[in-house]
Amino acid sequence: MSSEDPGAGDKPGSNVPTFTTQANALLRKNIIYQKRNSATNCCIVSFPIAICILLFVFQRVINNVFDKADYKCGCDEATGVCGLQFSDGSQAAYCAVEHPPGWPGFVQVPKPAYRAVVGGADVGSFGRPATILYTGRDRSIADGLANSLLLTTPSNSTDTLTQFSNLIPGSSSWLLRSNIIEAAFTEPDPIYVLRNQSCLGQSDVSISVNLLGAPFSRGTECLTTRTIYRDNSSDINSELYKGFRKGDPQGNPTQIINEYAGAYDFRNTSLNNFDVAIFYNQTMVNDTSQAPPGYARVSRPMNLAVQAFVRFAVGAQAEVPLWFVKEMPRSASQLRLDLTSLLGPLFYMWVAALLFPVIVTSVVYEKQKNLRMMMKMHGLGDNAYWAITYLYFFALSIVYFFFFVAIGSLVGLQFFRLNSYSLQAVFYFVYLNLQVALGILAATIFTNAKTATVSGYLYVFGFGLMGQFFFSSFLEDKNTGRGWILGMEFLPPFSLYRGLYEFGQYAFVGNFQKTDGMKWGNLSDKDNGLRTVLIIQAVEWLVALFLAWYLDQVVQSGSGIRKHPLFFLRSKKKLSSSSAPAKSLSRTKGVDVDIEMDKPDVAQERSVVDRLRHEPDSAYSIICDNLKKVYPGTDGNPDKYAVRGLSLAVQRNECFGMLGPNGAGKTSTINMMIGFLTPSSGTAYIKGLDIRTEMDRIYTSMGVCPQHDLIWETLSGREHLMFYGRLKNLKGSALESAVDASLKSVNLFNNGVGDKRSGQYSGGMKRRLSVAISLIGNPQVVYMDEPSTGLDPASRFNLWNVVKQAKKDRAIILTTHSMEEAEALCDRLGIFVNGQLQCIGDSKELTSRYGGVHVLTITTPADEEDDVAKMVSSFSPNARKVYGLAGTQKFEIPKTDVQIAQIFASVEKAKQSFSIQAWGIADTTLEDVFIQIAREAQGDVPLS
């Protein structure tokens, strides 16, 4: 606290703490702050743990269900039947099939209600026909091939399935995900025999097969099938596209029904060249009530085309038989559905994004409480602040995600175990950097921490639900354009969801197939979107960092004076300061009239400022040059003049007191000099540095005790002083000594008070801590805005001694409402009213200049008040009664009209005439002068 403390320097910036020193101070403070908020941290860390355990329990429940007999291969103890023992085929997907059965190759035909109508009418009692379109460059060859498509020859085989296969079977049912069982035999849809042109005169065929270990018989229906020529392949494609799924499956079409059993383009086919394109239906379902399988019936349409060409080239009796199609043999498996990988992206997205509102709230809180500005005013640079803030939150994110992945892996979630850990680490690394940058960027939008918190959590949970129920549908729909998905991925929550979705899909498939999940080589997979997501997030990370830095400069977000949006293009030359004298603005009949209003003492101060502007003097630490602050009027109201052209020069070793009623402009003046407000015009120089252009250098040697205490509730008084001491370049034993001296000076050292959390301090203790903060590190310029507010008399007296001691080698500007404090501490005083300096001088000078009266107080019986008034009138005709109540009266008597001896003699003589119970005489006090000047100034016309 003394002038010998380390950290002093003759000029701001001469002993500036390095970036490393600033970063070290802030990092230490943040670590301590984090330790004090251990309960909150535990709650945050417990969220991913709870999610992992919840998913683990859910997966165990699902596994227990799949462990039941209905989902296992083996033998039914009741019947003794092994393998595919259930008629619904429920075990077919998991049982070993060493010798898969062979099935006839079917043609996929539309359901009756969807079939294209030929000639605008149905075909007799056989219902609507199945239609096959065809085309080719040579019409005659195309016709010949089409006529041979559905020709059949009888089979000599005794096997009913072989005989049936030669009859060109068809079905409107859909294949299962496995071809172990032909769905046409188990589904209720009819089994058709496709006939060329007409079913008239054709007999039905019965089929007997050994299905699921038991004999099975089914009848068939004849299906008339027609071939229709189209001019070219484009017409076929257009017709297939326009008519698909246009009908009502109940048989009551609402639009044109136009579905076909297939189509062929024979293109350049000739006797020496077979060139064909086959159109077949792979849409999987005809109505949304059916689950999509994984296979389409392609073998039979291909066989028909080959057989037609052979018959066209060789003869009608030629045959290329398709005896059967069958599944590949496979070993037994057990059903294992990793639902946590499918459901995980939603929960994992919530976990990953949970730190976003934490980051935003923390930064906005420091802005809302002006804590960042407080740190900046004591020497913390923007670069150090953002570097430590960024690294601090990124480190927290890394620790948070480490626990997330570690706990998920320990409880057995395949989402983490199967996917490459290095690939996950890269993805989380890029995303966490993006999230921290976005959090800092979003903090520039908000001014209230509660609003930021609510908005942050709505952002997290809202986008999580949109990702699960909206974005995922686009990812799963293969018909969605790549551009739409890419566009949505530019929204950071959707890019996060896409990455987690890819990990989930690979983990699900890997768990089902007993293979690994996503590896680095999978990034080149056709449908893998993780590579694109990483690129998008990396680019957005850099863009978000730049925008956060830029908006922090041009938006007044707690970092002080905001810059012009094009500040990087503006000249770095010093702005010229205005030297015009303070003026008031009088409005007379709509005409603005400038009137000089400077009083002699104020005018003399202005002349000193004008001289110093041209002839700098290092003895003056603070120079205000016509400093003004005007708030533009709104809704038709006039402009509000907070400070009206202040010119002031404060020397080193001087404490200047600013007095004035509430709203006089004292705090606005200080806020401009500490960089919290931008001057409307004029400027101030601190040790020769302009507050408009060199505020960052000024901060390194400035101390501030703001009007409201700006402290962290969870940090102790000692920790506050240690932090701000480090910002003032104090280190080691010098720092410890300075902190102890500061605590002792403001009476916060004894009984361990300095080591208690400041949230437990009383209002007076917090005020004393703010004063200690302003003086730590021996700043050359100190601003104290009502430092003794809320202090008891003993603490106030102690604080005065601290300030008196601190005046050595410093310039102090102090505002107060206590006249006693102003007389005790201030070398000079300035009284402000309506934003203008009304008078300036020391207390004795002001009382002498503006209070040249004696104040006589006399108490008598009430009926003798007139006698007292006559006596006072005898002293001076200019005497004025200023107070009277119940016999006690107070009079002001000009000193030029009467001597004190005359007053004493007159009072002693008056005691013989009437009863004087008490009396006293005093000079004018500073409070009297203050009230007098304030009253006089209230009638002044506003200054310009």
UniProtKB/TrEMBL annotation:
CDD domains linked: ABC_subfamily_A
Location(s), subcellular: Membrane
Main location: membrane
Statement: the UniProt record of this protein carries the keyword Cytoplasm: no
Domain ABC transporter: 622-859
Domain of life: Eukaryota
Any GO BP annotation: lipid transport
A GO MF label: lipid transporter activity
Keyword annotations: ATP-binding, Membrane, Nucleotide-binding, Transmembrane, Transmembrane helix
A Pfam family matched in the record: ABCA12_C
Transmembrane segments: 38-58, 345-365, 385-413, 425-445, 457-475
Membrane topology: Multi-pass membrane protein
GO CC annotation: membrane
SMART domains, alphabetized: AAA
Similarity annotation: Belongs to the ABC transporter superfamily. ABCA family. CPR flippase (TC 3.A.1.211) subfamily.
PANTHER family: ABC TRANSPORTER A FAMILY MEMBER 3-RELATED (PTHR19229:SF154), ATP-BINDING CASSETTE TRANSPORTER SUBFAMILY A ABCA (PTHR19229)
Protein name: ABC transporter domain-containing protein
Lineage: Eukaryota, Viridiplantae, Streptophyta, Embryophyta, Marchantiophyta
